[in-house]
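Board notes, transcribed. Complex of a protein with copper (II) ion.
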Amino acid sequence: MDSRRDFLQKALALGAGALASAKAFAAQAMPGREHGGQEMPMPSQSARNSGARRGAPPHPLLIETPDVPELPWRMVNGVKEFHLVAEPVKREIVPGKVLDLWGFNGSVPGPTIQVVEGDRVRIIVDNHLPEPTSMHWHGFEIPYNMDGAPGTSQDPIPPGGRFVYEFTLHQNGTFFYHPHQAMQEMFGMIGAFIMHPRKPYRPIVDRDFAIILQEFAVLPNNSVPNSMNMEFNWLTMNGKAGPASTPLIVRLGDRIRIRWVNLGMDHHPIHLHGHTFYITGSEAGRQPETTWGPKNTVLVGVAEAVDMEFVANNPGDWMVHCHLPHHMMNQMSSNVGPMTRRPGMPMGVSMENGMGMLDGTPGAPLGDDYGPSLGRGMGVGSTNDQRISNTPFPSSKAAQAMPGMQHGEMQQGEMKMPQLPGNANQVRGFPQDAYMEGPMMAMDEMVAKPETYGLKPGWSGFMQGMMTFVRVLEPDMYDKILALRHQAKPEHQHHG
Ligand SMILES: [Cu+2]
């Protein structure tokens, strides 16, 4: 506390203007956040971003979780007090695709908690779900009765109930919170819990981000995921699928940390273009420098966190994404070709069957018909032959099926529709990507925000699933985007 107070006082003496504008920006970006006095937690990241002066970053340097709010707190007799509400949340993961999920305080993933090593924290958890829950603090070395293990360390929190967690934190690193109810985890319930070290890690970074990886199985025209399903067709970073995820904006030459957290059924190999990074931390905290090694892809396993660091020394709009091919797609883990492009039903099993979402015909999910798969899709090998006939999709039909998208009606200078040979259908396997990614899928305008300013027109047709950008920008472009961001209105959050 003392060192932070000292810092605040010095900062106020030296750069009151920068702090004031940071505060104004925070008020704009985070409605509902409590400000003023002790409640302004730490010198904000934006203090640095908004100031022209480039010096050592403030400590602790607040992390940014794009598309996810920060959880406010207040100091009560020396304890940092947070308030989490577990509740249903409507989350628009891409334009027009609103999912019915469960999360915290109106957000999926839940709001980010940031504390400093040594803090005593109290977290009031209210259960506004229709069923019991509990809160587990993943990897925290805290007293047993605070662990949130339902039925053992505590009774589950009943619907309408409350449990107050309180503990002192002596660890530092990238942590997270989630209910210890497995299906609730698969329904969106997780949030980042960052414990800043008392002294900054070396080398010092200029920007620090956190991204939570999640996956959902949702039928077309449906909003409720099937949490029992094993074939995921919506893959999100901080609750947004590409191209709706907000790019990370960094200044050329900055040292960057990105903290990845995965809570799902799959491991995600995260790949960064154009740079070599080092793994500096795990879900258990900082790793000794002797263990660091160069990488450009790192497997973020289920229930793990990975801290990657690199110097953004290569200008460009670099993709960063999960490299599992199906995780770079939206609405795409089952074959939807015949159902979307031809009238009638495909031969063999239906898409519902293929995704393990059964309507009771011919039998119950656990009946003889589905015995071996226990109601879950077992993949291509366990299904009947399907009629595969993907004929070209005329842009007039595409416009009806997917209104709002650009469908090749490109402005001058934008990407043109690909010219396909007339005999394309005679090539076995066609199409692969021809109708799933490309200029006809672009929705630049629908996902426009300050962070997408200046991207190559049509870019959004190529960014799906767990994909976003690290935009390594020259100073003038960087400053321009930050200025646009200051003007922008905060994003509307859906509340359930
Ligand atoms: Cu993946």
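DSSP finds seven helices and 21 strands in the chain. The mean pLDDT is 79.
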